[in-house]
Amino acid sequence: MLRLAAAASGHRAGCPLPPVSSYRRRALFAISSLGLGHATRTLVIMREYLRRDYQITVVSAGNALSFLRLELADQPGVEFREMTDYPPLERGTGWRLYWYLLVDLLRTWRLISREHREAEAMAADYDFIFSDGRYGFHSRWTPSFILSHQIAFIPPRGLREAAWLTENINIAALRKFDWVFIPDYPRPSLNLAGHLAHTHYLHRCRHRYVGILSSYRQLNLARDIDYLFVISGYLLEHKESFVRDLLEQAGALPGRKVFVLGVADADGELYERYRRADLEIYPMASGALRQELFNRARVVISRSGYTTVMDLVEHGKQALLIPTPNQTEQEYLAFYLGSQHFFATGVQRSGFELQPALQACEQTRLFAPPWKTEKSLRRLTNRVDELLHQHFFSIIVPAHNEETELAATLHCLLSQHYPAQRLEIIIVENGSSDATLPLARQVVQDAPAGSRVKLLQSERGVSRAKNAGLAALAPESEWVVFCDADTRLGRHFLHHLNTWLNRHGSEGLSVGTTAVRPQVDERPYARAWFAFYDLIHRLTRSSFAIQIARTPIARGIGFRDELHFAEDLLFIQDCRRYGRFFFVPTDQVSTSTRRFKARGYLRQSLRWLVEALLPLRLKANRHYDVIR
Predict the structure, then answer these.
(1) How far is CA 531 from CA 235, 523, 538, 597, 609, in A?
(2) For residues 580 and 508, is the Cβ–Cβ distance under 8 A?
(3) Which of 203, 413, 469, 581 sits between 20 and 30 A of 111, alpha carbons compared?
(4) pLDDT in tens, 195-228
(5) Domains of the chain, CATH where assigned
(6) What DSSP string runs through 332-354?
(7) pTM
(8) What is the pLDDT of residue 593?
């Protein structure tokens, strides 16, 4: 018993068990700070997942981060992280514009690479990643989505012939995400983004037009603000003089005017002299004030940013759109929407006259959206949910004389970052002569409340043990994982496996295995041999240490009781008649090298080869030399 207690306590120290109740759904939202629009349109998606009881981490910078802190201040399930964003493109004028463009593109590429490394390092702790304008936030092992209306980029004058190149580069970046959500309508003749979101290169990435997204709610308020000026935009070099010019001219307009500058740290004293009884100025509006001002506005004067356009369409408001100089996306949107007579447009330049431009609003017609935000949100979340399905996994661990290995294996299984209600662990002790059985009982007894762990006994033999496990599977089981007692599954193994199955269309799959690494021996020699085994398993559709099968197929096939070795090869071969074999290249599986240490890698490999090639009649009831 002293030996048993020492083994169990030592394994617990190496693989601590979190309470089962600690698992909670989490989402990572990465928001560009190049304009407030990225933050405002994604806000409605964040609120939806907060309503679904997700914990959310928001990664952003600058005004976008400040805005989201204010909007989500009352939400306890939100944490914020600041991370450097990309430089604002298309700044400067003349030849400087092209020089800055080159420098900023190189810097952007470096920042994307850096943020991807950081995102990958923390991705496994989240159920999904959602990006709006940040291209590095995607993961190999976590479902990743991006919201973008700008599939095609419009280069500055002089570089228009390179548009095909920028589109292809953008598509290559977007293809790294599971889904590209486009906040526009699919009809070529009835949309808001024009060529920006409707390009023939789009078929190369998995995408869906979800429709407009607006974080403004419909409030039953009188439209008593005649003119609402929302002058955000990330190219600040063009902003201050323009705001002053608008303030000067707004004073002469009849009715009530309100300015929202869209800068959290704006110095209010700079604009104090423009304040009047009929003219209010806010550095930034958030929360209830933001909703109120927009709903009360009769006419909106704003940059022609795409999120603003969606807000205007959602609420059926007339507007004057004034693009930021040299910001080609805004210039295109103003031209496109103005030519369709949906909005009046103006040009920011010396001598700009506000009053005649506002009169043109009376000649516009409202865009009639096929659907609005409520339906758009459903279209988006339905696609996300498809990749978030949590399969029910049953893990069967046959154990024979495994007192030195079993406790660590089981404690790592109980530490899986996966919902306890979607996981069961079945230990099958078969004919052990050491402390395997009492050790397994102790681990089951100490398992966290809520975990589903069963301990069974069978006659000696790995096939009998696996069959006993199959007979005890829960009715809701979808996939069964056969795990050797000396094979460790990392904390994120089931997260990796679940993501892989969802991404690869699990309906057509029947049986598979994973990459396996040496558990302790990290010498290059050992790693090279295990890499060789992974290659062989891919090519021959075989495995050792771990097998994964669809539960109905595994139950129907089972294992032959008379086989004491190579039983997994025949099992895989039979399962393959009902679907495809698969290989999951995860780094979360490691196994003991005790067989190789006892016999040598080459000798053990040759022995496995011979055993695999033996006819079935020679394998039946043949003694298998167990190494412990």
Answers:
(1) 51, 12, 11, 17, 17
(2) yes
(3) 203
(4) 999 988 888 999 999 999 999 999 999 999 999 9
(5) 23-212 (3.40.50), 225-368 (3.40.50.2000), 390-619 (3.90.550.10)
(6) HHHHHHHHTTSSEE---STT--H
(7) 0.88
(8) 85
